[in-house]
């Protein structure tokens, strides 16, 4: 059983996540709190395997809370769930987050990401190790738009294709570069397609 702590300052989001994870029989939500300080206390009290962490919160924001949790117990895996792909994602990864996900992720993919983050899950290959040359021209174009922070709808408009085709390009690209999710793919795109490491 995977022990999960949910950290988000919006009660509606917390309630939605609690309902979602009741559908996963192998995941037990041991707590749901609204800020980073409460998250630290909950980690000490409940000893979760995985912490699902928001970034923007009062009192103690997600990056700082992630750093303190990982410093206290490196076996706890922090999965960041955020609404915006910005510089804080890289800060969270540097602070020790296991992975970062955007809040528009498919619910089934979110459950799978929590399972993959559990301490006994096999490690995924790093996305940075995969070559851009293995991608098709359209996959490169799609990833470039993703790395610029565009949504699937915006990418579809820019490329004059359907959102379903965008998703297909991204699914294939994830497999080629070894990315587990949208944020990993965006970071890979920034490093390898846009020429920026920050």
| CATH class categorisation of the largest domain | Alpha Beta
Provide the β-strand percentage band: 5-15%
Could you name the ranges where pLDDT drops below 50 across 5 or more consecutive residues? none
* Architecture (CATH level 2) name of the largest domain: 3-Layer(aba) Sandwich
Structure classification: alpha/beta
Q: Fraction of residues in helices?
A: 40-55%
Summarize model confidence as the mean pLDDT: 87
Strand order of the largest sheet: 2-1-3-4-5
Number of domains: 2
- Under CATH, the topology of the largest domain can be stated as Rossmann fold
Radius of gyration in whole Å, from Cα?
17 Å
Shape: elongated
Written overview of the protein:
The chain has 198 residues and is α/β, with parallel strands linked by helices. It folds into 2 domains: 2-117, Response regulator (Rossmann fold, 3-Layer(aba) Sandwich); 127-192, Arc Repressor Mutant, subunit A, CATH 1.10.10.10. It is 49% helix and 14% strand. The chain contains 9 helices and 5 strands, in the order βαβαβαβαβααααα. It has helices at residues 11-21, 36-46, 62-72, 87-95, 107-117, 137-147, 152-159, 163-177, 182-192; strands spanning 2-7, 27-33, 50-53, 77-82, 99-102. Helix 1 links the parallel strand 1 and strand 2. Helix 2 (36-46) packs parallel to helix 3, helix 6 (137-147) crosses helix 8 (163-177) and helix 6 packs across helix 9 (182-192). The termini are far apart. The relative contact order is 0.12.
């Amino acid at each position: 059983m995977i022990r999960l702590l949910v950290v988000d300052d919006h009660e509606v989001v917390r309630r939605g996540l609690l309902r979602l994870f009741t559908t996963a029989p192998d995941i037990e939500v041991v707590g749901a709190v609204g800020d980073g300080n409460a998250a630290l206390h909950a980690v000490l009290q409940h000893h979760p395997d995985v912490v699902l962490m928001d970034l923007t919160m009062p009192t103690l924001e997600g990056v700082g809370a992630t750093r303190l949790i990982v410093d206290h117990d490196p076996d706890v895996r922090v999965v960041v769930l955020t609404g915006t792909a910005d510089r804080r994602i890289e800060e969270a990864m540097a602070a020790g987050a296991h992975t970062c996900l955007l809040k528009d992720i498919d619910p089934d993919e979110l459950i799978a990401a929590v399972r993959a983050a559990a301490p006994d899950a096999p490690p995924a290959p790093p996305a940075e190790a995969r070559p851009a040359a293995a991608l098709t021209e359209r996959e490169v174009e799609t990833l470039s738009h993703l790395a610029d922070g565009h949504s699937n709808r915006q990418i579809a408009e820019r490329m004059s294709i359907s959102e379903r085709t965008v998703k297909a390009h991204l699914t294939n690209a994830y497999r080629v570069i070894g990315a587990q999710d949208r944020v990993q793919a965006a970071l890979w795109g920034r490093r390898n397609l846009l020429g920026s490491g920050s």
